[in-house]
Amino acid sequence: MQKVALYRPGAIGDVLLNFNFVKQLKEKHEVHYFCHDSIHSILNNFVKNNNLLEHFYPLEKYDSNNFSKTINLVGYPLHEGYPHKKMQNHILYYFANELGVNFTFNEFELDLPPLPKKIKNRNTPRYITFQNKTGWSAYKEWWGWQKLIDLIKQNHPEIEIYQIGGPHDIIMNNIDGSFCSDSFEEKVAAQAWALGHIGLDSVFQVTSNIQWRNKGRTKAIILFGSTQYNGTGYPFNINISLNLPCQPCFKEDPKISTMSMGPCQNPPDQTYEDPKHACMAGISVEMVYLNVLKLIKT
Q1: Domain identity same for 215 and 284
Q2: Fewest Cβ atoms closer than 10 Å to its Cβ: which of 1, 99, 241, 260?
Q3: Residue 165, CA distances (Å) to 169, 186, 203 in order
Q4: Are residues 84 and 159 located together in one domain of the fold?
Q5: Residue 215's domain spans which residues?
Q6: What pLDDT sits at residue 298?
Q7: Are 123 and 239 in contact (CB under 8 A)?
Q8: How far apart are CA 44 and CA 287, in angstroms?
Q9: What's the pLDDT tens digit per position in 28-52?
Q10: 100: left (phi > 0), else alpha (psi -120 to 50), else beta?
Q11: 244 and 132, same domain (yes or no)
Q12: Domain check: are 99 and 132 in the same one?
C-alpha cells in the first residue's frame, strides 16, 4: 500500500474539509496528514477519538523522504482566477480532485458523541448553538446576534441557546451557556445534539456536514457576506446571502492574509478595523429569526 502524505498547514476549517474524503483515501493508501502545530493541537483528540486517521501530525514531523507521494492541498481554485473570480464548483470538488477521489458531500460520518454535561435539559434536550465570530475576515461577520438571541428567548423561552466558538470570543448575553473555552470535541458534541445551528462561513459550518449515526446532520442557518454561499456552503443548509453585485469579494484580514483584496468599498470609505459591509448589514434580525423558527419546529 502506497504511503502518502497530505500537506495542508491550515486553516482549521479547510483541514476538516479534507476529512470528507479520508475514508476513500484509506482504502488505497496509508495516509499521513500534516497541518500547522496550532491546528494539530486543536484537532488531534477529535481525529484520534473518531478513528479518522491513524497518522495525524504537526508540520514539524514532515519529511518528504518518508513518502512515495506528497499532495500539497490548496482547495481554492487559483487556476480559475480565485479570489478575483467566483468559484465554479464547491470547494469540496476541488479538494476531491487534488486527492484523486470521488466528490461527495456524504462521507463525513461519525458516531454521535455523548451529550455534553453543560446542557441543562438533559431528558429532552431542545436547544440551538451559534457561532458569531470567524477567523480570516471580519467581512464574514454580522451585527445582529444579541437582538436575535433576545428575540428567540422572548418568544421561545423553552429553547436553550449555547455559544460555540474560539476561546477569545466575547460571550453574548441571555444565553444558557458557552462552550467557547471548552475542547473542540465538546463544541462539536454540542452542535451534534442541537436542534439546529446558526452561524457564519467558518469552522462550525464545516462540521454541520457531519452525518451523525442514528441522528443525521444538524440543520444549520449560515449567513454569508464576503464569501460564496454556493462555493463553501452546503446545499442542505439554509444559506442566507443578499446576492449583492459585489458578492463574493473574498476580502480578508490584511494582517494575516496573503490575498486580502483591500478594504470593503460597499459602502465606501470604511476601514477594515471599522467595517460596515452592506452584505451583512442588510441581513435583518427578522430574516434570520423566521428561519430559526423552521429549526425549532422540527
Answers
A1: yes
A2: 1
A3: 7, 11, 9
A4: no
A5: 127-296
A6: 63
A7: no
A8: 38
A9: 999 999 999 999 999 999 999 999 9
A10: left
A11: yes
A12: no
